[in-house]
Amino acid sequence: MSFETFNLHASLLKAVEKLEWTVPTEVQTATIPVALSGKDLKVCAGTGSGKTAAFLLPLLNEFIENPQPNTQTRALILVPTRELAAQVAANCEALAKFSTIKCLTITGGEEFKVQAAKARKNPEIIIGTPGRLVEHLERQSIVLDDISHLILDEADRMLDMGFTEDIHKITGRCPTPRNTWLFSATLNARGLGAITRNLLVQPAVINTTDDVDAASIIQQRFLVDDVKHKDRLLVLLLNQEVFKKALVFTNTRDHAERVGALLRFHKLRVDVLHGEKQQDRRNAIMVAFRKNALDIVVATDVAARGLDVEGMDLVINYDVPRSGDEYTHRIGRTGRAGATGTAISFVAERDWNLMASIERYLGIKTENRVIQSLKPKYQGPKKVKASGKAAGKKSKTVKTSKTKAAAKAKAKGKAKKEQKRKIGSTDGFGVIRKKPIADFEP
After folding, report:
1. d(Cα 394, Cα 386) in Å, to the nearest integer?
2. How confident is the model at residue 304 (pLDDT cuts 50, 70, 90)?
3. What pLDDT digit, counting tens, does each position of 182-210 carry?
4. Which stretches does DSSP call E strand in 53-152?
């Protein structure tokens, strides 16, 4: 199958050819015809599967073939992070290169007044994060009265980040009827059902491949004893592993900054990416990473979504992620679009149960790996007590020994009490005698 099969506008086919896309991916093949038919969509698609083009191509095709120059913004694409917004915008501009369609990115970290001025030019497509979009709506600098297409990209991540209320505020300003397309890494994310019922009308449900592809991503774990052990192991791996680009994930900004400083001390080409960085600085880091001026980026989960860098072949979870979905999106930065990669997780004793629950949730098994020079003292949880008949016998034995000990203590206490009764009586002056009275008689 080729892109010509979809009967897309000539300008889009020209852009696709320029991008050197030859064969549509699985999610594109399944999604584009349904989207072109005008149905609502609920799509589960893996990272690196080409889902961005799966919604941009039918959207742009509709706007090119049915221009409405006198309307305001016609499409709103909601995404969870600035990085993903930038990625979607770059794809949109590349695909719309030979048309007059304009898109605008609305995210935090950029000058509000500049965004408002650009919004007044009525770009056909706005790509934005929920928080900043709500600000614009409250100040009435963006109007959504002419929205015909609403797209929620990585909806599960937006819900995880606490954007549920903002999503309802934004979608409440969009008119109906409209086309609503929802893309998610999982169809069972918490809160996704309610969003689906409230926003989508008889949607077509499309579920393509799983995010975690065992064939393309080698998944390993190292058991670790403490933070110092983690640090030594991380430095050793980044000096000895063969990789083009590596992402090191931590759970907090402070951890990211400390690990980044550690790696810089060891003369590695590294920078740090997290939500407290100014947008200009975040953009500069990503440009340097893509241009090979950096080999390693230490990041919090702000970079787990929308960070698509060619040549990313190593992901290290310095901190175990908080959920299976987060694990999926972290390691999904490698092994993209048929490439191979390695994902490594550092698992301390306190992380064991969390990592085990992630493996059960995703139906995977990470390979245990050891470097002998840094072999951990911690070797995993101790064996649990025997079950079945053996456990029953053991329990009975313990119970019997406890009963005997209690009986013995009771008997001893009774004997002492009897002895006190015999020798503990007082004489006529109220003195407690220490020996039987008979012993004091001449």
Report:
1. 9
2. low
3. 998 777 667 788 888 889 999 999 988 55
4. 75-78, 103-106, 125-128, 149-152
Q: How far is the C-alpha of 100 from the C-alpha of 284, rounded, in Å? A: 29
Q: How confident is the model at residue 399 (pLDDT cuts 50, 70, 90)?
A: very low
pLDDT at residue 140 above 80? yes
* Residue-level pLDDT at 409: 64
Domains 3-207 and 217-374 share a fold: yes
Q: Which two three-digit tokens encode residue 205?
A: 């449900």
Tokens 């799966």 map to which residue?
A: 54
Give me the numbers of helices (H) and strands (E) for the chain, helices first please: 15, 14
Report the C-alpha gap between 342 and 220 in whole angstroms. 8
Q: What are phi and psi of 161, to 5 degrees?
A: -85, 0
User: 303 pLDDT exceeds 90?
Assistant: no
405 Cα distance to chain centroid:
54
For the CA atoms of 255, 257, 262, 268, what is the dihedral angle to 10 degrees?
Answer: 120
The structure tokens listed for 434 are 């220490």
Report whether CATH 3.40.50.720 matches the domain 3-207: no
| Distance in angstroms (rounded) separating the CA atoms of residues 436 and 432 | 10
Omega cis (within 30) before 130: no
- Cα-Cα-Cα-Cα dihedral of 183, 184, 186, 188, to 10°? -80
**Dist CA 60 CA 48 (whole Å):** 21
Helix/strand/coil percentages in the chain, nearest 5: 45, 15, 40
- The residue extents of the domains of the chain are 3-207, 217-374
Start-to-end C-alpha separation, the chain: 121
Residue count of the chain:
442
So what CATH class is 217-374? alpha beta
Whether the CA torsion 48, 93, 130, 71 is positive or negative: it is: negative
